[in-house]
Amino acid sequence: MAPDLTITTVLESGSRVAVLTRVADGGELLVLGRETRKGFDRLLFGATTAAVAARATVPTAVVPDSWRPKPCAGRIVVGLRAAEHSAELLEAAIAHAAASGASLEVVHAWELPDAYNNIIEARTHDAYWVHQGTRLV
Questions:
Q1: Banded model confidence at residue 21, pLDDT cuts 50, 70, 90
Q2: Percent of the chain having pLDDT more than 70?
Q3: 93, 116, 115, 128: which is closest to 9 by C-alpha?
Q4: Of 112, 94, 113, which is closest to residue 104 (Cα–Cα)?
Q5: Going by C-beta distance under 8 Å and a sequence separation of 6 or more, which residues neighbour residue 34?
Q6: pLDDT category, 71, cuts 50, 70, 90?
Q7: How many angstroms separate the first and last alpha carbons of the chain?
Q8: Residues 70/99, Cβ–Cβ less than 8 Å
Q9: Residues ≥6 apart with Cβ < 8 Å to 120
Q10: Which of 3, 4, 93, 103 is 20 to 30 A from residue 38's alpha carbon, by CA?
Q11: Are the CB atoms for 104 and 5 separated by under 8 Å?
């Protein structure tokens, strides 16, 4: 889509919030899609956007689906949570980075809500989750 754009990927594991804030550190802006979970799902899994915005060391924008980017320069970090809508998100991020001459970093992070299950999954299914995350990105 943008042959002159340099794209690098980094595969990380750990807390979504910690990974997103760490990777965005030193950037110019961190942009997150607006979460649409409500009720019990939001209570159970938490709000990634709120936690990231509270901890980020760079300006953070949470935007709705209708948002359209304006030109900027520097580095753009885009976070992928799931395959749903990721094509549209990446298409917009690539177009924005190409138009502004910025570099683009794509981040995908996940964690299980239960620390014990997270430890077991990392020990027993680490290769599976790495494969799934790589495939998504």
A1: very high
A2: 82
A3: 93
A4: 94
A5: 49, 62, 63, 64, 65
A6: low
A7: 15
A8: no
A9: none
A10: 93
A11: yes
Contact 81, 133 (CB under 8 A): no
**Residues 101-118 as b or e (16 or more Cβ within 10 Å = b):** ebbbbbbbbbbeeeeeeb
DSSP track, 54-104: HH-SS-EEEE-TT-------SEEEEEE--STTHHHHHHHHHHHHHHHT-EE
Give per-residue burial for 1-39: e unless 16+ CB within 10 Å, then b.
eeeeeeeeeeeeeebbbebbbbbbeebebbbbbebeeee
Q: pTM score, two decimals?
A: 0.43
Q: Hunting for tokens 């550190």 — which residue is that?
A: 25
3-state helix, strand, coil in the chain (%, to 5): 45, 15, 40
CB 65 within 8 A of CB 34: yes
pLDDT in tens, 75-104: 888 888 777 778 888 888 898 888 888 888
